[in-house]
Amino acid sequence: MKLNSKSRNKRTLPLAILGGSIAISGAIAYFSLHGSKSVVLQADAAIYAKIPTAAGKSNFMTQSEGLIQPVDPELADLDSQIITCGASVDNLVSAMPSYSGSCAGAGGSLATTTGMYLGGQCCSAMKDTVDYHANLQKLQAYKSMSNIPLDPMHTPVAMAKYWIDYDKATTLTPDQQKVFDTAYAISKEKPCCCKCWHYFVNEGIAKKMILDGTFNAQQIAGYWDASDICG
Known about the structure:
Elements: H1 5-50, H2 54-63, H3 73-79, E1 98-99, E2 108-109, H4 130-139, H5 157-169, H6 174-186, H7 197-212, H8 217-226
Antiparallel strand pairs: 1-2
């Protein structure tokens, strides 16, 4: 049986509409997907441009998987602090602030350190903040001691300088040194993973704890372990 033109139109019209609908849906899905990626990429690029250190930029690039995935704002904030493995912070309190590099990136200079802190992630990028928050909670056990960083990833430069200078100026007696050595032996992290500014800050804090008789070796080791900033 032959179909007249009206019959053919009745059968082919729904197929044409269906095909058009599929094409439109596909186009919407394509532009939705690629449009959202474009928004993420633009947002990441804007944050990346404002990060002041090479190490911070490197960490952000890892966290964003090459600027294509959104980064937790808390991680982006940590990336935006001063990331350095320098043993001294004297250069950061000078008229022309500069910083040493770290395992995660090279050193450089800063226009200002106002509103910025010495941060962590100096060895590698943090991927989530679970352990970080757990450590912040543990550090609350030490809040009775004044002028110590209870958030080591946001250590004020002046506070770091105070403890580094204190460490240099303070010598323990043989008995006091035994307490320090015991803490060192049982700590997983030690004062830090390398002899950077954070190492000497934590060494100075431990000396003060021992001299004051505030905390024992186990508690000093606990402070060191909870103040891990490596990444």
